[in-house]
Amino acid sequence: MKQSLPLAAIHIDDSYWNRYTTLIPNKVIPYQWKILNDQVPDALPSYCLKNFRIAAGEEKGERKGTAFLDSDAAKWLEAIAYSLASRPDPELEKTADDVIALIGRAQEADGYLNTYFTLLYPQEKWKNLTEGHELYCAGHFIEAAVAYYETTGKKAFLEIVCRLADLICKTFGPADNQIHGYPGHQEIELALVKLYHTTGKKTYLDTAKYFVDQRGTPPNYFLEEMKRPGFRRIFPEFSGYDPLYSQSHFPVRKQDTAEGHAVRATYMYCAMADLAEEYEDGELLERCKILWNNIVKKRMYITGSIGSSGFWERFTIDYDLPNDINYSETCASIGLALFGLRMARITADASYIDTVERALYNTIRAGISLEGDRYFYVNPLEVQPDNCLTNSSRAHIKPVRQKWFDVACCPTNVARTFTSLGQYIYFINDGNFFINLFIQNEASFEVDGKNVSVSIKTDYPKTGNINIGIKAADVSFALHIRIPDFAEDFNVMLNGAAADGTKEKGYFVIKRSWSNDEVLVSFTIKPRIVYANPKVHQNCRKIAIARGPEIFCFEEADNGSNLAALSLDVNAPLEEQWREDLLGGVTIVKAKGKRLVLPKESESFSEKFIPQTEDVELNAVPYGSWGNRNPGEMMVWIQQQV
Predict the structure, then answer these.
(1) DSSP assignment of 605-620
(2) H-type helices in 134-201, by residue range?
(3) pLDDT grade for 236, boundaries at 50, 70 and 90
(4) What is the separation of C-alpha 337 from the centre of its chain, rounded to a whole number of angstroms?
(5) Are 246 and 225 in contact (CB under 8 A)?
(6) Distance CA 106, CA 112 (A)
(7) How far is CA 62 from CA 8, 35, 50, 116, 602, in A?
(8) Which one of 131, 225, 259, 313 is the catalytic residue?
(9) Which of 453, 450, 482 is closest to 470 using CA atoms?
(10) Burial (Cβ within 10 Å: 0-12, 13-18, ≥19) of residue 206
């Protein structure tokens, strides 16, 4: 089984990613601590930690907030765990210990843990799996506890979630005295696999498998559940429930297309991949490949975002990719990255990492401001701020990042993603060492009981120059270096001479005994034009600019208003320029184009309009950096000049 290196074994010091790896512990985690304690003026209230204090009997009051609010604390703790792995902080660890102890005091005697049902509807536990999110919250607590145990070695949090997991395994399953259901929002499945790896208790793995195999089998559990006397609806919008929403329309092994709520879908696909690997289930792995290809080839945006509809935050149909009303939840891209990470690890196929990298460098990065205190939940590819009106089809589009949300899954999810960035860089197993992402770092691992140190020095994606240093005592293994799908003139040198290697599934592979060696990788990164498939009606005849893993966009701050009036000349060269003074340091791309001159007439349409154009220089910035200046228009896809 291929594994990522432990985060404690990796020290990232990268000119591109430092802005986030230092931002999260220094600003984001403290900011979110204040949010969870309702201490940020003018931000939407969280209620999160107050709810736990009420459940623990330490504070009086009414439980407030969404049914799944507990998960915000879990993901925040998970981010702390990953941060502590690379940046020990006794004060932060003490804060985390205190919150964990509070959660333990809020836990019921039988292991049940959920403030919504404990405080408001204790008689309805496990009776609304469709909407209740009990298993979803449990999954996030388990992930956080596993991460915290792996980092600190402390067992208190792990013991809390094991009691909860034991209750879940006792409650759900195929026996007559068990509930034959599964979670409305997937998450518990992948979490139970992690808990199995940590504890070795196979019941956790078997229960995860039960949830996945049971899902979508007739009769549909959710539809039957809602027919039961006394069923209480939590979310009114679920009144016309469609099993597509929760990927329960078919058994998972019969699903050919990515359907429904995009976050639920990708979390389920992660679990499917995990279980396929654990049980050596080729049929389930093949289903993962089918679903992945449907997403990446037909239902994914160029920025690595997914979920094109604001209604139900869902996938729709192939090639339906609107730019200005899409949803593209930040959490959905995180789910996609986690799914791709698993598929790359299982198959040793670098093409999965190409998409993972696309999501990380674009949509996920756009989800947080450069200051760390503002967030995007929705990630459009085109914005006109004046059009984002309440009670309209664009009401969900925010032209500026927000301090917080009443549904605040994305901010804490971004925090745990960037503090665990190291998990994406390397894989190791059975004499194979994989380099997936080109992020400057130093790491260490063992092969056959012998220590190996590896260092990556690079300014990627500014350039495609990567220096890989390996220090070992004559240790044999195969080094797999990813060849990005956009790389031109890919070249590998070993100790000053052309490397003798092979290309396997998108990796350049060098097999040898390593001692004190230097591998120099180089490839050309330059701006390139990307053409939209005409089947994507919204982008027919449109083009976009990409450079390396980054997709570029046009902002009003650089190009003036009414961006829709612009067109780009594909025959003119694209020029790049490094701007240290802009957006924390970015490469910008300059292009030639035209702008339609606004007519004098005020009508929306007229036979008198005679299109006239003027020459303009266009300036594009990385999509991941957009929205960090004055509010204004933004656009990724631009008309091709004809």
Answers:
(1) --TT----EEEEEEEE
(2) 134-152, 156-171, 188-199
(3) confident
(4) 5
(5) no
(6) 9
(7) 41, 18, 9, 10, 55
(8) 313
(9) 453
(10) middle
> Tell me: the pLDDT tens digits for 116-174?
999 999 999 999 999 999 999 999 999 999 999 999 999 999 999 999 999 999 999 99
Q: Give the Å distances, CA to CA, from 320 to 266, 298, 305, 402, 440.
A: 18, 8, 13, 27, 37
Beta 566-568 vs 638-640: how paired, if at all?
parallel
User: Considering 409, 550, 556, 633, which one is annotated as catalytic?
Assistant: 409
Nearest to residue 289, comparing CAs of 278, 304, 277, 303? 277
Return d(Cα 176, Cα 407) in angstroms, integer: 36
Cα–Cα distance, 569 to 617 (Å, whole number)? 10
Both tokens of residue 519? Answer: 């591998």
Q: Which tokens is 206 given? A: 């078997």
> Is the pLDDT assigned to residue 407 strictly greater than 90?
no
Give the H or E element holding residue 515. strand 507-524
Calpha distance 407→380 (Å, rounded): 18
Whole-number Å distance between alpha carbons of 156 and 158? 5
Per-residue pLDDT band at 398 (split at 50, 70, 90):
confident
Task: For the chain, state the CA radius of gyration.
Answer: 25
The CA-based angle 334-241-218, given to 5 degrees, is: 90
**Cα→Cα distances 629→337, 562, 624, 632, Å:** 27, 17, 13, 8
Upstream peptide bond of 385 is cis (omega within 30 degrees of 0): no
Distance (Å, rounded) from C-alpha 602 to C-alpha 633? 21
Q: How deeply is 519 buried, as exposed, middle or buried, from its count of CB atoms within 10 A (0-12, 13-18, 19+)? A: buried
Count the Cβ atoms, other than its own, within 10 Å of residue 130: 25
- From 20, 31, 37, 15, select the one nearest 374 (Cα to Cα): 31
Active site residue 313: yes
pLDDT in tens, 476-514: 999 999 999 999 999 999 999 999 999 999 999 999 999
Distance CA 314, CA 367 (A): 18
* Amino acid at the residue 475: V
Query: Taking the chain, what is the end-to-end CA distance rounded to the nearest angstrom?
Result: 52
Residue whose tokens read 């799908």 = 485
Residue 622, H or E segment: strand 613-622
Helix axes 134-152 and 90-106, enclosed angle (nearest 10): 140
What residues contact 299, with CB distance under 8 A and at least 6 apart?
257, 258, 306, 308, 315, 316, 318, 319, 320, 321
Q: Output the CA–CA distances (angstroms, integers) from residue 640 to 153, 392, 542, 562, in the order listed.
A: 57, 30, 5, 16
Contacts of residues 440-446 at CB distance under 8 Å and 24 or more positions apart, as own/partner, are 440/12, 440/13, 440/14, 440/15, 441/10, 441/11, 441/12, 441/13, 441/14, 442/10, 442/11, 442/13, 443/5, 443/9, 443/10, 443/11, 444/9, 445/5, 445/9
- What are 349's two structure tokens? 């196929």
